[in-house]
Amino acid sequence: MPPVEPDPRLATAVASLAAGLPDGAPPVHPMRALSAAGFGVGGHLFAFVAGEGRLIAKVPSAVVDGYEQAGTGTRMAMRGRPMREWVEVPPEAGDAAWAEVVAAAYAFVSGL
Q: Region 7-12: what's the mean pLDDT?
């Protein structure tokens, strides 16, 4: 299977996150997510971009609830089943919202 390039908006958000990580923080690495390119930490996926340019990120369930209440994102569903700790953020949410969600996902998955 040929390599998949990460979405440029996600790559920018992750590069910004990685540049601000403190010394000794677990490094971010590229990862495959289904048929998309994503990013992981410690061997675990934390963010990728799915169809229609939606950011998909792993954050605590309560954080997903907060994004839903704020109108930033919605709980991801897989085959009609809501995923407890995954949020979808549309491209219209903007770069600042994407950067915030990516940082929250990294922190959650890395344990920081």
A: 92
